[in-house]
Amino acid sequence: MPPAPCTMCWAEALKREKETLRLRETLTDLRALARQIGREEGITEMELRSGRRKKEISKARRRFCELAVVKLGYPGAQVARFLGVATWAVVRAANSEEWPKIGSRL
User: Fold this and answer.
1) Residue 102 DSSP SS3
2) How far apart are CA 74 and CA 105, in angstroms?
3) Number of folded domains in the chain?
4) What is the CATH number of the domain that holds 59?
5) In angstroms, what CA-CA distances link 33 with 4, 11, 12, 14, 64?
6) Residue 41 falls within a domain, yes or no?
């Protein structure tokens, strides 16, 4: 018979599983998060959920995706359905960094 796993190994495995699955007891409602970001960025929830590509709206949408997917652990597909966009767009926005400004070197 194989030896029983040590208690410390078991605790470490549970910790890693929780981090990997990003299990949370309570998740912030996406609508509440959209309102909060809208207030902070000076846009409405409808503008955030629209397909408009104004700089301010795109920046707020990117921030929303990053918070919802990376920080809160929502699946990209769920955030995409909320925003009315494709899943790849949400995942890309959540994992992207802001583009650096290109100087006058070009």
Assistant:
1) coil
2) 40
3) 1
4) 1.10.1750.10
5) 45, 33, 32, 29, 7
6) yes
